[in-house]
Amino acid sequence: MLPSAARTISRLCRPSAAFAKRSFTVSVPRPIAPGSPSCSVAATTRARTTVSCRLVPRTHNFSTMSAVAKRLAGKTVVVTGASSGIGRSCAFEFARTAAPAGGLRLVLTARRIDTLRQIADDLVKELGADKVQVLPVQLDVSDRKAVRGFVESLPEEWRDIDVLVNNAGLVKGVARAPDIAEEDIDVMLATNVTGLVHMTQAVLPTFLKRGSDGGAGDIINIGSIAGLDPYPGGSIYCATKAAVRSFSESLRKELISTRIRVIEIDPGQVETEFSVVRFYGDKSKADAVYAANTDSGVNPLTPEDIAEVVVFAASRPENVVIANSLIFPQHQGAAGLLYKKQ
Q1: Spelled out in words, what is the top-level CATH class assigned to the domain 67-334?
Q2: Contact yes or no for 141/168 (Cβ under 8 A)
C-alpha cells in the first residue's frame, strides 16, 4: 500500500462512532492488500477504493512511555460536559495518552449521570483500573450552588485538581435578535458564560495554593470561531463565546505571576450533538447541516480532533502556554465560509 493511502485509511478508521457509520473512498494507483484489523478493503488497479470502517476493540502496548504520558501521570483532570461530543472525546484522549505512565484521575461532569457511568466503565475496561481512575459526577454548570460546592463535594483524594477543561456549552435556535426566546437567552448565558466563570472560580483556589510560584494548574476553555467571527442567527451564542475569549484573556493577564496556564481552544465546524440541541432535538435538521457540507466535499471536524488539541495543550512543559488555538476543518475559512466543490 502506498504510504499516503495508508495514512488516509488509518485516520479514517480510528474508532469513532461517527466514522463507524460511514464509508469512505480514497484513490490509489494499485490494489490494496486486505488485512487491516479495522478495515475491509475492496480495490481494483487505478480505481477508487471503498474503505468501510467499523469499531474494533483497542489493544494497548504500555511497554514504552512518552514524555507526554509522564507529564500527565498522577494528575487529576476535570472535564465538564463530558457525556458526549468534545467532552467525551477529551476523557478518552486524556486516559489513553496518560495510560503508559498510569495514575491519571478523571472527574467527568454532566447532567446525564448514567452516560458518564458508562463512559467510566468503558475507560476502565479498555485501559485497566491501574492506568486510569474515573469519577462520574452529575453536575449542571448553570446551577450556581452546585458549582460553588463542587470541589468540596468530591472525595478528599480527588480535590487536588490539576486541569480544568471548561467544555460544557450549547446553542439554542437560529432566531435573529428580535425573535430570540427569553429562555434560550438565559440558558445560553447561564451555561456558556456564568457556568464557565463559576467553574473556574470553584477550582482556582486549589490552583493558587499549589507550588512556590503563586500557583499552578491548567484552565482550558473551549470557545468557538463564533466568538471571533459572529454570524446572523447566532447573536447570543456568538456573544457568549466572545465573552469566553475576553474572560480567558483577562484571566491569563491576572495570573501572569503564577504557573497557572489559561488556554483557549476555538473549534470551527465540528460534528457533535451540538446541532441537535440547536434544533431542539430535531435530528433530521441537525443531520442536514453536516450532510449538506459533506456532500459538497467538506468534512467537518470530529470531537476527537479537538480532544487531541486539548490534551496536547495540557501536556506541554510547564513553561509552554498554548494560549489560543483556532481549529478549522480543511475548506473552512471563517464561521460562514466553507468552500464547496461544484
Answers
A1: alpha beta
A2: yes
